[in-house]
Design goal:
The protein is α/β, with parallel strands linked by helices and 278 residues long. It folds into 2 domains: 21-145, 3-Layer(aba) Sandwich (Rossmann fold); 151-275, 3-Layer(aba) Sandwich (Rossmann fold), CATH 3.40.50.1980. It has helices at residues 2-17, 31-39, 73-78, 91-100, 112-125, 129-148, 178-185, 204-209, 228-237, 262-275; strands at 26-28, 66-67, 70-71, 83-87, 104-107, 154-161, 170-173, 188-190, 198-201, 213-217, 247-250.
């Protein structure tokens, strides 16, 4: 009788004791979260991805569910997800999850520490704690190697948005973001000294900060029917070409994704700072 009770208790507890992760149909609501799931070896569980997801290759053919803060509810529900991964600021995702009683987990993504904590959190959810720790260890080692290899620091202005054909509505990278941290590791000193993460500034910043290098981030350039050469034309004309040879236009989305490939982003920034003319 006692043996039968023990067997019954084991059967009742088996779903919680099983090493098989609970979630089978995962929908990450950002490219970075998608990359994290895949990097932990669980890309096969993803059933839908954000519209502009380009990496990894294995998820390119999956249904597209919209963009940050603008998820297509009908498509999302049709995928029957048992786990949705989203950012804390994603109000629409919160509303959808609440209304339709969906399992959702929300994460931070602003800093490098946020990125590593998110990797750890997703690893715990998917039964990949060991893999998450290994990935975070590799990220820390990789970033440490980038920092050690920096020959000297350069003053850098990172442009994140502006009007094409002019330098009106100029936005630059500020402080407190993973990109600013990576820029620092790669040997760049951000010339913007204000407290905003991304700041709208006037053209006066070029005169007052005197940057050694300028990096313009334009990951959605091709979607706007433009080329890096078109942006470089503006820089060639700006202030009589004073920044000729010191500007680099970056179109790779990798540069703005707070995901598991941040070491590659740091190496890219280091490479750009080294290659531009002094």
């Amino acid at each position: 009788m006692r043996a039968c009770k023990g067997l019954l208790l084991l059967l009742l507890l088996s779903p919680f004791l099983s090493s098989t992760p609970l979630y089978k149909r995962v929908v990450p609501l950002s490219p970075a979260l998608t990359e994290m799931v895949a990097a932990l070896g669980e890309g096969g569980r993803i059933v839908g991805v954000p519209t502009f997801t380009q990496f990894p290759e294995e998820v390119k053919r999956l249904p597209r569910i919209g963009v940050f803060q603008n998820v297509n509810t009908e498509v999302l529900l049709s995928l029957h997800p048992d786990l949705i991964l989203a950012y804390r600021e994603d109000v629409k995702a919160r509303n959808i999850c609440s209304r339709y009683k969906l399992e959702c987990r929300f994460f931070a993504h602003k800093t490098l520490q946020d990125i590593q904590e998110t990797i750890g959190g997703i690893g715990a959810l998917l039964g990949r704690t060991k893999e998450a720790k290994g990935l975070n260890d590799r990220i820390r080692r990789g970033l440490g190697e980038v920092k050690k290899s920096v020959p000297r620091r350069l003053r850098v202005l990172v442009v994140v948005d502006r009007e094409i054909g002019s330098f009106q509505n100029l936005y630059v990278l500020g402080r407190g973001d993973f990109l600013s941290e990576l820029l620092d590791l790669a040997g760049g000193e951000n010339v913007y000294t204000g407290g905003l993460t991304y700041a709208r500034v006037s053209q006066e910043i070029f005169y007052t900060s005197k940057p050694d290098r300028i990096i313009e981030l334009a990951p959605s350039l091709s979607e706007r029917g433009l080329t890096p050469e078109r942006l470089m034309q503006d820089w060639e004309r700006f202030q009589g070409g004073v920044y000729r040879g010191r500007v680099s236009v970056v179109t790779d989305p990798l540069a703005v994704i707070p995901g598991p490939r941040v070491v590659e982003t740091a190496r890219l920034l280091r490479r750009l700072l080294r290659s531009l003319k002094p």
